[in-house]
Amino acid sequence: xxxxxxxxxxxxxxxxxxxxxxxxxxxxxxxxxxxxxxxxxxxxxxxxxxxxxxxxxxxxxxxxxxxxxxxxxxxxxxxxxxxxxxxxxxxxxxxxxxxxxxxxxxxxxxxxxxxxxxxxxxxxxxxxxxxxxxxxxxxxxxxxxxxxxxxxxxxxxxxxxxxxxxxxxxxxxxxxxxxxxxxxxxxxxxxxxxxxxxxxxxxxxxxxxxxxxxxxxxxxxxxxxxxxxxxxxxxxxxxxxxxxxxxxxxxxxxxxxxxxxxxxxxxxxxxxxxxxxxxxxxxxxxxxxxxxxxxxxxxxxxxxxxxxxxxxxxxxxxxxxxxxxxxxxxxxxxxxxxxxxxxxxxxxxxxxxxxxxxxxxxxxxxxxxxxxxxxxxxxxxxxxxxxxxxxxxxxxxxxxxxxxxxxxxxxxxxxxxxxxxxxxxxxxxxxxxxxxxxxxxxxxxxxxxxxxxxxxxxxxxxxxxxxxxxxxxxxxxxxxxxxxxxxxxxxxxxxxxxxxxxxxxxxxxxxxxxxxxxxxxxxxxxxxxxxxxxxxxxxxxxxxxxxxxxxxxxxxxxxxxxxxxxxxxxxxxxx
Length: 575
Prior knowledge:
It contains 21 helices and eight strands. It has helices at 2-31, 37-43, 45-52, 74-82, 85-110, 116-131, 134-139, 146-161, 164-169, 172-192, 197-206, 214-247, 256-259, 279-283, 285-291, 305-326, 337-357, 365-381, 386-403, 480-491, 509-525; strands spanning 422-423, 433-437, 455-458, 495-501, 528-530, 536-537, 539-540, 546-553.
């Protein structure tokens, strides 16, 4: 009977771990086809450029994002070439659903005060709450990948928590080996997406405050750090070497105030819009962004998981003090103390690193998923009766579930045949065509629709001093990329076109006017003018605002356009 029960329990666990990710694949289909900003900007262009050898042909058509490590994008791009859009979306959602499996395994490793079946049941509930947050549901089926690299974060926590007693009190050699393995996993995630490095720092520092002698703590942190470096070297090393040899900055363009690459401005290039401006704001940040999601991103959603963990962790020292003062009989801890302390410390320290570096909620997605685990771990250590613990966890989880509200990063109402579809106008001389790119709305996703010989160079955007707010600084203000663009334009003797976002297609006349003004100013900077009356649309499934316009060289300072040098649009695309 016991064998039958154990077998039935094992089968139930397997079915759960298979079914839940598949449900997330189905959820991706229900939510709709992804059209997010980053997909239109670089998640589609970067793997295309990487796989087709365009790194030396184009110049930053996807803003600074052109220089992101493309390895994480390659599998989705390749699958999207071979599969219908729905199949690709289902697979992407299914992989993102694997976060449930790792959370479930992590909770099973932490929980100790229940029977195996009870542990599995509680772990399934808490893990389900972890992956059903408002932030995470917003990302299901999208190419932001914050809920892909989260697998590395949760996986690292699982490796440590599953053998916490051996890691913190076992033989040094085996404990260091396990710790290095956890670092290797998390380092891989950080290599694939660099913002994940905040968790690498937090998880490494957590060894210093968990348990063991000072020497052992330092040794564990060192072993974990070596693993992180190994993972990053494997998944980001070649790309960072390319950036170093090409731009003299392995993180180009970021932290260029440190590396001083001549190809960019001496600036950090980080998005600092959301970082708290004072200590008090930083301390209250979980409350602030829980009620105002625009404090940490560009989309509206609601989720109180991180706030709930914040409140529970703040309350924990007081509950310990209260429990000891009352000298009440408390149940034994419901969780492994060493594993729970490590996971809590790792999460808290990662959050502390995230605030001054980013304060962008998407980058904190692993913590949203881990928040119910943190609540369960902290309450499981409380010196109170078992019923009180269950009631506290159940109440917190119920509140965060019923109050969650996902947002949207942009989705189509239905599904098209392919993941990305675009049709460019026919060009008379594709072997001798150069397209200049302007605008802040992403357009690089249409580049794969053009003939491969056509080159694209961005002359205005977020990357350098061609930002419209900077004004025309002349040659003295040029970066190395500016000079590369000038040299490319000076050498080019063929057709010229402008690729830019025309917001008039979306009935936003004010935005359309601003984009055109920016395009005109950027073109003038390089001695060019566009014939906006001859623009033609790029037919695409993700957006309808991309336009291709003929461009001419200005014949002299302040001169009108020299129409004899304009590149005509081919007759077959005329209205």
